[in-house]
């Protein structure tokens, strides 16, 4: 059985142990508070760095969008300028082509086809040939066109000639038309222009001879230039 003294000593030891334990607890609490404070500081620093990183990323992203936008604007601007330049050159080319065509049309002389009544067939045929050349009439269409410009005696003759060729089942070519016309309304002396050109002689002035030579030479076909010069 414990005596009172022993009980008192045991109680005192217990109180002392409790005091020591409380002291340890207090020390531990103080250490814990320091750790918490340190962690709070570290967390604040982490948050601060995070905010700075976000701000920096946002700034960089804005700069990237701005640069991209400027690049896009530059590309669009260059593309627009290129399109304008292309349209400008294209318009100039088109205008140039139109202007060239208009000048060509304006430069094209207007030649009317004269009617023929049986007088001076050489002059009329020469005018008809010029009309065909200016209007680019093909040889296969020439006879059909000139038939509309025959009047009076020439028209009566044409009705007869076309009837004869039709009965023979032959088509009147332009060369046939020329020969038939000259045979009917021209000078019989020069019906065969090829033969006439070989027989022509100078009997008067050189000017008259040249005029007659040119008249006959304009009616012959398939004579090379060298042969024409020799005949002159």
TrEMBL record:
Residues 47-105 are annotated as: Disordered. Residues 78-101 have a biased composition (Basic residues). Residues 68-77 have a biased composition (Basic and acidic residues). Residues 145-232 form the Retrotransposon gag domain. Transmembrane segments: none annotated. This is Retrotransposon gag domain-containing protein. It comes from Striga hermonthica.
